């Protein structure tokens, strides 16, 4: 053997490892950063030991703690997602900590005896979407957990495809975000088409809304509902911006804009300028497309909500669903002041909106959807108790397909190929393998919600009440969730007919 070959021998294993990393499809980080990417997993493996002495606790990191991310990662991979040796949270001294109150006895059948439907663990919504107003396309969503709005453009084609395939496998709906429908959205999941202030995908050459185009898009399917985006938790009242680096030829074609240039969405719509004209537009879209139509908004000044409820109570117009987004910041990048200080956090914002509908006696007329870190079981349970009929998940489903909370979504340098249009980075994400993980996560979240529901003595998360949770006041006392938010008896629950129907569905024969 020549001296040159001898010198090369120590490097052959590294070269072999690099070649394997480049062709494997399970880990986007390794495909994008062969060999050196293994350091991330090595550090992750010894992370608890390192943090115990020199870094931070498992429940200290934000916006998602290491424990929360670990639960999502383990759930998506069907690994052990249990935690041993007690809680990391300081439950005795944390002000505002929610505690779920289990029941000793219950008439609810054990989970092993409950009919979970054709998809194994499908948990349908407690209300019909569009049913109250008799929309031709009214339906009962098959999942109480669905995918929130994240557009093609903000996310890569591979990420959109993986999430759509995963949602389809889990029987969940996939919200398109305001960027329109691409071919990557058409892998089996039912879609909620979001219409933003720039009317992407349903606008003319001058950027104005065009009804004919919207009807064509809806008819092309599988669009089950339309969501009008008024604002979102990441940047309420600000509008949006897709940097020019992310505006590829394909994205430009779908949105009807120019490639390579910053794509700005204004903060307000041009098709309506008041609550009254908004409802006129809602009824127009519903009449022309036949599908349920709702709105999405973060919660700030309540004047809009007061007027909306008054008009819905006194006229024959109304939205079919309301998606309330928490002001904690979400998948969209924004100035720090907007993500941290503009609009109310989810629990307070949602409670104030729900109260308006409940006091008017029309809460049963609307399907309520919550979003804003509700992809974690404890947060979701609080949302259902407050009156949510469904929850939407965004950052959590991103984590299920590999997001490591690098917080580089706005730079086009996402290391896992999720929030980027960089071809090299995006190629590391294999949609087929990641779709399985998205589906596993969605199913696991529903399973845990069912377990908690049964612990509370009810058959469905939508039947959990504000009396089933207490909010701790440090180590001194606790107050029921109902008292904290000023709810009256039976607020937050479906009416007796819907409650009986969903109980019958969940406790049907195996």
Automatic annotation (TrEMBL):
* SUPFAM superfamilies xrefs: FMN-linked oxidoreductases
Extract one GO BP annotation from the record.
glutamate biosynthetic process
What InterPro entries does the record point to? Answer: Aldolase_TIM (IPR013785), GltB (IPR024188), Glu_synthdom (IPR002932)
> Signal peptide span per the entry?
none
Could you tell me which Gene3D superfamilies the record lists for this protein? Aldolase class I
Any one GO molecular-function label of the UniProt entry: glutamate synthase activity
Outline the extent of the Glutamate synthase domain: 144-457
**Family, as annotated:** Belongs to the glutamate synthase family.
Q: What is this protein called?
A: FMN-binding glutamate synthase family protein
- Which species is listed as the source? Gordonia crocea
